[in-house]
Design brief:
The protein is mainly alpha-helical and 126 residues long. It is built from five helices and no strands.
């Protein structure tokens, strides 16, 4: 029910009077939903590889997806003509600010989580 309310809320904000469904957009949305569902089912079935944290697995999944989308992005949009200051600021934000704090299963933050008997957000096997 909340999912439907969210979709309706976004539609009210984004859509205008001339809004129409686009077959490519609908196909992309359905393909993304199927891909996400398949990824969740396969991850639950196979589990995480030994020694790989949830954060590490997510990083590898995002890397694989980025590599998979590189060729279609270059074919559809072409090679970017240049990278401006706003794009560099966005990359810096994602790489530095969003990547902080750098915790992993061997870090002091994780040891602090274990000492307080809490689950560390970056690792789910302790």
């Amino acid at each position: 029910m909340w999912g439907v309310a969210g979709v309706v809320g976004i539609a009210l904000v984004v859509l205008g009077p001339q809004a129409q469904l686009d077959a490519l957009g609908v196909a992309a949305g359905l393909g993304g939903a199927v891909s996400m569902g398949l990824g969740v089912v396969l991850t639950k079935r196979w589990g995480r590889p030994d020694g790989v944290s949830a954060l590490g697995l997510a990083g590898w999944q995002l890397t694989g997806a980025g590599l998979l989308l590189t060729v279609p992005a270059l074919v559809i949009d072409g090679v970017p003509t240049g990278i401006d200051a706003a794009a560099l600021a966005g990359y810096a934000w994602l790489g530095i600010v969003e990547g902080w704090p750098p915790t992993s299963c061997g870090s002091r933050a994780s040891a602090a989580c274990r000492s307080h008997r809490r689950r560390c957000w970056a690792c789910s096997h302790h």
